Amino acid sequence: MNGIYLDNNATTRVDPAVVEAMLPYFTEQFGNPSSMHSFGNKVGLAIKKARMQVQELLGAEYDSEIIFTSCGTESDSTALLSALKAQPERREIITTTVEHPAILTLCTYLEKEGYKVHLLQVDHKGRLDMAEYRQLLSDQVAVVSVMWANNETGTFFPVVEMAELANAVGAMFHTDAVQAVGKVPLNLKDTKIDMLSVSGHKLHAPKGIGVLYLKRGTRFRPMLRGGHQERGRRAGTENSTSIVGLGKAAEMALEAMDYENTEVARLRDKLEAGILAKVPRSFVTGDPDNRLPNTSNIAFEFIEGEAILLLLNKFGIAASSGSACTSGSLEPSHVMRAMGIPYTAAHGTVRFSLSRYSTEAEVDRVIQVVPEIIAQLRKLSPYWDGDGPAAEPEKAFAPVYA
Amino acid sequence: MWDYSDKVKDHFFQPRNAGVLADANGVGDVGSISCGDALRLMLKVEPESDIILDAQFQTFGCGSAIASSSALTEMIKGKTLEEALKVSNQDIADYLDGLPPEKMHCSVMGREALQAAVANYRGEVWSDDHEEGALVCKCFAIDAVLIEDTIRANNLCSVQDVTNYTKAGGGCSSCHEGIEDILARVMVERGETYTPGSAPKQEVSPVGLTNLQRIRKIEAVLESVRPQLKRDGGDIELVDVDGKTIYVNMTGACAGCQMEALTLQGIQQKLMEELKEFIKIVPTKVSSLTRAMKG
Ligand SMILES: Cc1ncc(COP(=O)(O)O)c(C=O)c1O
Ligand code: FES
To answer: Would you state the CATH architecture of domain A257-382?
Structure first.
């Protein structure tokens, strides 16, 4: 496949060097790391090395703070459920309206179980109100969970500062850093962040491997109980192959950190500026001055995202959309709704997410194709008339029911 | 990515009859911008004959919404209004070689645009008579509104009930929590609280069918399979109907033979389709007469 892949926030390709590092652990190095023979021992050492590679990427103080899990979602669930179990006297959770479903769906469930969930609102650029946050913090709060960077817009949240505030009232602080790890430098040992989630497949490691960072001294209750793997904090025989892969990917991400924040960011900016210059009635969502270096989320007014994706796909370009139709739901993305993006634009949002494999030629090609596609779909739209929106679009098209 | 048929893709990538129809004399606007779908259907009708001479559309929506609009215009061109109004949403979906369950509402929207445009041509006001809810059960394509209405109409109180009445929840189980949420909400309205463990309603009689109607239907189904059983030297007799359990007596060569279970399963399936409810068929060795005397 020689397509143009700009959907790296959904998942990334496994780096060939990562695959190479993993291969021996499918074949000759197949031992169980817990075993007492040399088959197992070698694997145990490889896992130890991977743990240190991840520790370094996260800037964690100890390698024992790294717990390997099966995915970002498992890390998120483990963190929140552990915080609640370990502090039964605290019955409140603070999180945001724009978290990934891995947090939000869990919180909806916990609410039904009797916990009080506070959802922090965001403004039109997806920014939190720190005064509201301060007000909600109390000795009733068991855990605060705020993502490091939003997966749809790339917008950063001030998690380091928020962790300090949580710490001051004795609440635990968790961050879903699935989108940030590998793209921005982290130094967890200098923060009050107690728990942090990582997902391997967002940084060129395989799918189905994750990490929960657990700061030393943080009270903890395991979600999976059983054997003594991961010091009893996550039972189940290790996914040794993927752990080795994630270690290698972490090492490579650290090496590429500068490139990610200079060259990838430059390409992203070029892509965005190129599209905005050629497509009328389009705008960037989220906070463009404070976001991941690889992400650009653009709203195209008066057309629908799934249709855009299908046409992009025809040109071999892969991206994603916050429209309702792509998910089979009736509402567009909760992130766009939370920012108050009007429906006529929210359904037409497209997220382009680059990686260190993205090239200048690819970006140029997308800048060339997108305006044509948008124009083609607008020709079909009842909200569009010639070169601009139908005069007073809301009135020009008034469906019988709404 | 959706599993769209080639026909859907074709109509999306090369939409037929797209754009404004300048001399339209019937226009129907339907849809909801919040759902991400909106469709304007424009018709040019010949007043003398009521024949649709031309039809064009404009659609804000996803791939299947655009494809459904395109298909609709192709299907109705050249038809009289009466003929065109016979086009159902299922016809639109069939024309496109099917739509994913989450996307069936696109074909419904097409059908509604047609009604709205015809009403507009005739100078009538069309109003939407159905409300569509979020899809709850993907296995059987059942939405929240249908589940809610069914719970309300029949005072249902368990997921099992909902499955018996609507099929929702009878497949992969992933929608059970969603069904429970609806149950909890509706039961509060009638002053009850939902408890997950509660047993299904005792008597499950289908909406709108009396016991007599049910028995007639059951008899009719048995009648339809009887010739085949007779060919194999057997017969079947209806013994009793107790709620959703149907007692039958298998006689002759069928009784006790290896095929009995298999045959019964087939008949049970037929009965369920006919009665539109879950039923269980249980063979007994008593005849209808002796059972009637006992009971
Ligand atoms: C912010 C965020 N959290 C969690 C996840 C889930 O990660 P995983 O797919 O590894 O469970 C994702 C991936 O889509 C994500 O973007
Ligand atoms: S979604 Fe309802 S049973 Fe599968």
So the answer is: Alpha-Beta Complex (3.90)
